[in-house]
Amino acid sequence: MNQRTTRRRSVFAMIALLALIGVFVVRLVDIQVVRADELNAKSLQARSTTSQILGTRGQIVDANGEVLAQSVLRWDIALSPKKAGEFERDGVTIPLKQTEAELGALVGLSGDAVAKIISDALAADPKSDFAYVVKGVDAATLEKIDKLGIPWVVPQRIASRTYPDGAVAGNLIGFVGSDGKAQAGLERSQQKCLAAKDGEESYQTDAVDGVAIPGSTVQKASAKDGGTLKLTIDSDLQFSVQQILAAQAQATGAAWGTVVVQEVKTGKLVAVADYPTVDPNNVNGTADADRGSRAFQASYEPGSTFKALTAASAMDAGVANPLSQVVAPYRIIFPNGANINDSERHGDEDLTLTGVLIESSNTGMSQIGALMTDDQRYDYYKKFGLGATSEVGFPAEDTGILHKPGTDAWDNQTKYATMFGQGLTTTAVQMASVYQTIANGGVRMPVQLVEGCTAPDGTVSHVPSTQGTRVVSAAAAKSDSDILEMVYQKAWLSKIWNIPGYRIASKTGTAQMPDGNGGYSHGYLVSVAGFAPADDPQYVVSVSLADPVNNNTSAASAPIFRDVMSQVLKKYRVVPSGAPAPDLPADW
Amino acid sequence: MSDSLARAPYVPVWSSSAIPAAAPEPPAPAPAPRIRIAPAPSPRATRRTRPRMFYAITACAGIAVIFIVKLLLSVAISEGAYETATLETANKNLTRAAQTATESLDRVRSPQYLAANAAALGMVSNTHPVYLRLSDGAVLGQPQRADGSGASSGALVPNSLVTGAPLVTQQPAPGAAPAPTAAGATDTAAAATAATPDPAAPPEPTALPTPVTH
């Protein structure tokens, strides 16, 4: 009996033990196998910290490597309203009011303003744990705030963008919003080159002092820096050009203006100035409409500067030469009913083609232009790059308006008006490109604004094409250049735009501006385009001023042309011309 | 041989079976086991204990050494972790300082600041370029007096970064402390003057030194 009891007991004990072991095994399997991943992740999360590795957005540099745009670190200063109160610093208790005043003084706010941030946040939510004091302070300010040692103030690191040269090329570079998104200009169109990718890493930290446990760092994604975007722009020249343009635009009361400087042999834009120009460091200081680049984004009727194109086309087509003779009356009615007149009353003049450009006669130009067919002229316009965006691909770049002959828009008046730059529109960059073609012996080079994008690993991409296309023959281009030299020497502005020692080819334009209702307003767009030195063309300068109310003629834009051109010649050490220009008769 | 027989009882079973096997089979395999077995038992028993002891001590010592080395290594690594953390903080601070310095350098080398300084020193730009050719002393171009017709004011092309930066002509003389002016010295509440903008001495938005009134 006793023995049986003992055996039964041991059997019970055994079963109980097995059951207990079974429970443990089940639990063990559950923890170690079934929920292992979940629990591991949970424990890791409790100990580990994930931090972002900031990728740096690429720089924008000018042709000489001067930095025009770069990324810098800034800090948003936030505080915890619910924890705001007195704290102890070096054994001294600092009252809240003093802290508010100290913090406010560093970020440019009054103590009361800081107090208001705290009380407003608490009024909205009594448990509020987060409110911004100020956004985007620099490292120097952050250091001072750190020194205050306020436990309830938290700085948050952000990547910000700064433009060391301010408004220099601000029209081209554009800007990046406070959210880090590119909003305008090259910042936007070259996003692919400049954009960086943030990485992420996590590591386990010590519970006491937050020091990373060695060997626990796991890089989940590596950061990728953006590429460096190199422009063809020269920042010093760009500054001078903007300065000259702004001074004259203000003096003449112009609504806006543009200057384009292009290298003849390569098609590189070395300066593209707009007035007004945005300072990308202070975007709100500029009206919304002035934040882009009108040189690319606004087309206008170019007016008489366009006559150089018609003359070059006619000479290339073989229907005219610099000495071709026309009788230019004040007004002429063509068989199709088109009514063309010159800007000033005059009797019939016996002009050569050279004389037509010197006098800027619309009636003379229309007669010579009419020697070509409409389709012939249209083909020349297309080959000169009109009616299409340039190779630059600027954001929201304007194509200009170019009607096709035979369509309703190409009416009887337009047929003739297009010969002297009305009835079609061009951008300032397109006009510069037309003069580049004439200066470069009739070969149009692709317009370049970006030289290339250098990735952090040294590979270069975004390199533009340098393949030129022949538009007119070298002889036609040379004859056109000779005519334009006569214009420079003999036109009514010859005293104003004179740069002694250099041979220059140039032409003025005074175009009526549309009133927005299909007619013309009283405002004029005055322009000058030209290149120098005419014996070996190096640089094209094209100037436009819109509605200069104090001086409504191209005399308003001529000083800009002179100052910019002389600055360009100085800057690039262009040697003055030796031989004088060949003389061409203006009349017969 | 006699020795081996005498100790036969101490020898394990397999060896006793080996001995009888030797008698019926005189060929080659027979002598080999005998030679092996015969000297073995008595010295083996004594020898075995010593190597075991030696191995145990070696193993234990090895483990101890490994533990100590591991401990030291851990200590060194965690020391290193703190050092790394300190250096990383230092690196961060230095990067910040470098950035601050670079930014202020970029500010003062901006064309706006340079042009404003040049203008303040009385320099004007000449719009008539002239060159002197060194090889023959020829003058290229037509020299003309600089009339300063070119735009010189830096405000035409704004740069909000250099707003308020003192020009070279406004810098305090070397050695002179950027002390407040006489008016500022008499005014005890410096904050009060900053609150009411004084056209002669505008408050500096940045940390740049206050220009001395001239």
UniProtKB/TrEMBL annotation, chain A:
Keywords: Membrane
Principal place of residence: membrane
Any one of the GO CC terms: plasma membrane
Gene Ontology biological process terms, A to Z: cell wall organization
Gene Ontology molecular-function annotations: penicillin binding
Subcellular location field: Membrane
Family: Belongs to the transpeptidase family.
Entries under Pfam families matching the protein: PBP_dimer (PF03717), Transpeptidase (PF00905)
Protein name listed in UniProt: Penicillin-binding protein 2
All copies of domain Penicillin-binding protein transpeptidase, residue ranges: 257-565
Domain Penicillin-binding protein dimerisation: 54-207
Automatic annotation (TrEMBL), chain B:
Transmembrane region(s): 53-73
Keyword ATP-binding part of the UniProt annotation: no
Region annotation (Disordered) ranges: 22-45, 166-214
Biased composition annotated in UniProt, kind: Pro residues: 23-32, 199-208
Start-end of Low complexity biased regions: 172-198
Keywords per UniProt: Membrane, Transmembrane, Transmembrane helix
The protein's name in its UniProt record: Cell division protein FtsL
